[in-house]
Amino acid sequence: MRTGSRISPYLYILPALIIVICFRTIPILASFTASFADYDIGGFHGFVGLSNYERMLTDARFWNSVSNTVFFVLGVVPAGIAIPLVLAMLLRGDLKGKAIYRTIYFLPVVTSAVAVSVVWTWLFKPEAGPINGVIIALGGDPLMWLREPRGIFEMLLAPLGIHPTGIFAGPSLALVSLMIVSVWKSIGYNTVLFLAGLENIPNNYYEAAKLDGAGKWGTFRHVTWPLLSPTTFYVLIMSTIASFQTFALVYVMTPPPGGGPLGTTNVIVFYLFQKAFDRFDIGYASAISVFLFIVLLGLTIIQRRVGEKRVHYS
Amino acid sequence: MRSGQILKQTMLLAGGIIMLMPFLWMVSTSLEQGGLSNYVEAWTRVPFGTYFLNTLIVTGLTLIGVLITSSLAAYSFGTMEYPGRDKLFLLFLSTMMVPQPVYLAPSYVLLAKLGWVDTYLALIVPWTTNVFSIFLLRQHFKTLPKSLYEAARLDGCSRFGYLWRVALPLSKSVIATIMLFNVIGSWNSFMWPLVVTHSEKLRVLQVGLSYFNQEQSSNYQLLMAASTFSILPLLLLFLLAQKHLVASYSRSGLKD
After folding, report:
1. Which of A143, A175, A147, A157 is nearest to A67 (CA)?
2. Which residue of B has its CA nearest to A269?
3. Which of A135, A189, A249, A310 is the 20 to 30 Å CA partner of B47?
4. For the whole model, what pTM was predicted?
5. Domain presence at residue B15
């Protein structure tokens, strides 16, 4: 009986522990190990030191996927904060139809990324797609959307006779189209987080601001924004981490083997996927995995550190 | 004041219409040229029935696994004291820091070595525990008063009996959250089933829909019909459980 009760705590965690070790810990460690190995379709060919990492440094396609991902994050994250923040401010308090709005905004969050991608592919269709239909009806020129490899700045500045190239051309319109979908899909979730954050701000701060004669903008700047900063920071880091891992949208909307027009929507996880499962280049794919992991770990650590200190006010 | 309200409502309404537009376009396109027969056509052109059944099997069995392994582990982590507990818990938590794409390739190699590639085992077994669910339930179990446990034991309740008859019935809300998160996660999961299965008879809904999209890329009525019926089950679940779901999301701050 006594020994029984001494080992029983371990027996309770055993089923979960087996799964975690076999299907999380071991593959994670294997990923690190494989990043130092020559491992391809023919199996393991021995350790090769840092050569997978050296290859990464000189692989233009890899760096292209990194810059696409950075563009993606820089586009999606600020929009995914600004729009939900405005919506949450509007929805705050007793408002007629609040529940209905929340339902509508939240709908895309629970919808699968694949279905969302299939629908938006149709909406963005250059020929006969509804979005171009609206543009034409308004007297504009139809766009190529998901098939447009030209950079967005290049397109915007062309009428002015300015032709930026390379990184200054900006993300392709195809990538921007994916950003739009990504923001649309996450608006509801971030709005709900901001609403919860706003509800946590004690009312007496607002009363004090009112007594001080602060206007709407002043109240927002000096009360709401600083007191909301923990939520804002949380949303910032979490959306960054999620955006770094975008895959389904790219895979379905700008399908393989390309990764979009001229590879302009090929993001890190998509590139990793191609290396691992089209080429079965496991060693090299693992090195990319480790790179991705280090970036995301860095973000998580920043989140924990700053989160503990509470991005703060007072 | 009144004009402020009108402005607010106008902005929210405009935003709502933009958010809803893709869904409206989806449904209206699915009904063009042929109406509801597009749904029948999409459903029968590729075996969507099989895809649905596979998704249901995977979602159901994964959920059962998660509920069993998570309640047992959370009970141990949250209410018992023993050497190594915190280190083991940290081992669990640390896996949450590593996103799935990072270990996808070695997972595939492992499944291949086990001979599980292209089987239900590969779709289900690795996901029969969920660290975040363990974490949520552990936090909840920690809040149950110790006196409750002692009283139950005095009444002759076994250790497992306390979990089954006392702790779990007191955790209905957390269990509901865990169920919702896991059902949504399994139903919508794409990358994993895409990688670990190849044959059509094991295809889940998301993978099936993505192939259908590639094969029928110009057949919009059928694609929109297929999209509509593939999001319908979760849409209904969301509408039924939305209050609880939205609250869970905002409390736990976790998606996907």
Report:
1. A175
2. B101
3. A249
4. 0.93
5. no
